[in-house]
Amino acid sequence: LLGFIGDDGEGQEGLELARDADLQGEEERVRSLRDGAGRIALADAPETEAREGARIELTLDQGVQLTAERALSAAVQRSRALSGVAAALDPTKGEVLAMASYPPYNPNAARDPAIVRNRAVTDAFEPGSTMKVLTLSGALEHGSLSPTDAIDTGDGKLTVNAHVIHDHGGLGWVGPSKIIAASSNVGAAKVGMRLGRQRLQETFQAFGLGERTGVGLPGEAKGVVPLPRSDLDLASQSFGHHLLATPLQITAAFAAIANQGVLLEPHVVRRVLDPATGDVLEEAGRRVVRQVISQRTAETMTRWLVGVIEDPKGTGHRARLSAWQAAGKTGTARKIDPVSGTYVDDRHMSSFVGFAPVGAPRVVIGVWLDEPRGEVNGGDVAAPAFREIAEYALKMLNVAPAPLALATPPPEPEPEAATPAEDAE
C-alpha cells in the first residue's frame, strides 16, 4: 500500500509511486564553485525558492490497519491458504480505513513481483456467492422480485444447458431472504433468469464492477463483467462465476448497500499539505459515483444480510459480533485451472464481506483467502477475521454497543404461494 523508493529516491510502488510528484517536491538551482577535488568551495543562495516535498495525510486508521494485518495473517496461517487480502472502508465517506495483503514482505530485502503487490486492487477473480447480494438487489430494483415471492429450489439441483447447478441441500420453496441466508445457487440462478442478461450485467456495472474504483493506487485492475451469452452464463454469473472483480470493488459495492444505495469512490489520501505553510494543496472529500439502488432496496438487503449471521441456517454464524449486530455474506468460489480451463474441486477463493452496526453502519470489511486447505467455506475461514477487525474498529470509533434484541430487524413476511409455472417465468 505505502510502497517504496529506489536508490535514486523515486517511488517504485504503492503510494510512493502514485504520489511521487507530490512527495519529491521541486528542484533548486544553486550556483557554486568547486575545488580541484570536486568539493563545493563556495555556494550562493538558491536562485528560486522551490517547494519542499508535500505532506500527505492518509485515511488509514493505524489501529484498524494493524488489526487487519494480524487477523489476516492468523486466518491465512490457520487455514493454510496461499495468500489473503483484507480491506475496510468507511461506508459514509468512502475512506479506506485498512488494506492488508498476505504474505507480507520486507521492502529492504529482495522485491519479488509475485509478493510485492497490493492484492486489494491488483487481483481480480471470480468472487462467488457474495455476488448473490447484487443479483437480488438488481432484481428487487427492477421489479423482477419482491420480498414475498416464493422460489422453488427443489432438491438443490438445477439443470441448465446440460450442466447441473448444485446447492448444499434441497430447500424446497423459499423466500429471497432464505436464498441469501442459506446461500442457494439454485435460488440465485432462478432470480438471475428473472432479471435477464442485460439487466444483470447493468446491475453489476452499476455497483462498480468492470471499472476501476478511482482509489488512486497503481496497478488497479478493472475486472471483467461480460454480457452472459448463454443461459448457463446467466445462471453462473448470478452466483458469482464467469465474471472477475477485485476485493476493493466488492467491498465498495457492499458499502453502497450500507450507505442506503449510494456508491462512493473510495480514497486513501485524505489531503495533501504544503509542509512549510500548512496550506491544503488537495483534499479528497466525499465523492458520489451514483445512486445504485433505492434506500428501500438497500434496507431490504440489509435485513437479509443480517439473516446470514443470525438465521439458524445462515452460513455466517462465525461473523457474529459480541456487542453489535452485523450484516454480511459468505463466499466460496471454485477456481479455474489455468491450463485445463475447468473448475478444480479442491481450489477455492473463500471470503466474507459485511458491515456493522446495522442501522448506522460505520465500517465495511471484506476478507478473502486464496486456496485454504481443509475447511474452505468462507463462513468458517474468513468470517472470524471479519469479526476480529470489526469489533476492534467499532471500539476505536467509539460506537456504542447495541443490544441484539433491540437491533434485530422485523421478520420477513412469509412468501406467497406460487406454482412451478409461475416460478419459471
Structure in words:
Helix 5 (131-142) packs parallel to helix 7 (185-195) and helix 7 packs across helix 9. The longest helix is centred in the N-terminal third of the chain and has 18 residues, at 62-79. With 425 residues, this protein is α+β, with helices and mostly antiparallel strands. The chain has 15 helices and 16 strands. It has helices at 14-18, 20-24, 62-79, 119-122, 131-142, 176-182, 185-195, 197-206, 231-238, 247-258, 295-310, 378-381, 383-396, 404-407, 420-424, and strands at 32-34, 40-43, 55-58, 83-89, 96-102, 151-152, 157-160, 163-166, 173-174, 262-264, 269-273, 280-283, 288-291, 327-336, 343-356, 363-370. The strands form 6 sheets. Strands 5-4-16-15-14 form a 5-stranded antiparallel sheet, with helices on both faces. A 3-stranded antiparallel sheet has the order 3-11-12, with no helix packed on it.
Features:
425 residues, three-stranded antiparallel β-sheet
Tell me the overall shape.
elongated
Structural category: alpha+beta
Share in β-strands: 15-25%
| CA-atom Rg in angstroms | 24 Å
Low-confidence runs of at least 5 consecutive residues: 405-410, 417-425
Strand tally, please? Answer: 16
Largest sheet: 5 strands, antiparallel
Q: Mean pLDDT score, rounded?
A: 90
Number of helices: 15
User: Main sheet: which strands, in order across?
Assistant: 5-4-16-15-14
